[in-house]
Amino acid sequence: MDDVWKKRFLTKKAMFFIILLPVIFGIIGWASPAGNMPAHYTAEAAILLGNYQDDIMNNPDQVVLELENNAFYQKNLPDLSGEERAQLLSNLKVSKVNSSEIQLSLTGTSGAAASQLDSIVNAFLREDQKRYQERMEVVEEAIGDLQKIKADGRETAEEVKWLYKLKMEQLSMEKAVRFDPGTDAPQLEEKMFSRKERAVLGTLLGIAIACMLILLLELVKKRKHGEDF
């Protein structure tokens, strides 16, 4: 008889503990510091491509290939190690938005994602500025030579046409610019659970464990009951 009461007491004690599990895990989840949980960041930026007749820098398809190529980072971000470049490329997504715009997004485990994306965009803009300036100098030199011919009264109809074409090209030339709709900085999205969400997750985890323990107790009870017979 004492063994029966002892078993019943132990069973009730175990059930009481199991019932308390969701509450305990909920409290633990609510009290857990958010800083100790891994944060997930996504930094985003857009680039409006330039227009100065460059087959690579003015072509969104070519720019996507350029920014997904390890050689670009070896040249423009030489301080990065090979391992760091590989990690950066695995977390970077470059996509074509339209014929003159590309979108970049970089994910990481800390706010470093935003600064890394800044470095990528700035490196591209520096290269773009260099090529834009080179093309502008070529156009300006050609315009200057044709204007000298015009001043001497030796210009032909073809040269007049060419001068007009060059001036129109000069007016339409644009370099690439960073273009982040709705914000002046890359969008930084922090995906971190709030206290309430952690408490709910803790409670759900507690319920799941409690159900597993109840099922386990029932299986043990049935097995012992079968052995008694």
How would you describe this structure to a colleague?
With 229 residues, this protein is of the alpha+beta class. It has 2 domains: 19-35 and 194-228; 38-135 and 170-191, 2-Layer Sandwich (Alpha-Beta Plaits), CATH 3.30.70. The protein has helices at 2-31, 60-67, 70-76, 82-91, 112-151, 157-172, 195-228, and strands at 40-48, 92-98, 101-108, 177-178, 187-191. Strands 1, 2, 3, 4 and 5 form a 5-stranded antiparallel sheet that branches. α1 packs antiparallel against α7 (195-228) and α5 packs antiparallel against α6 (157-172). The longest helix has 40 residues, at 112-151. It is rod-shaped and about 115 Å long. The chain crosses the membrane at residues 14-32, 199-220. Keywords: Membrane, Transmembrane, Transmembrane helix. This is Teichuronic acid biosynthesis protein TuaF.
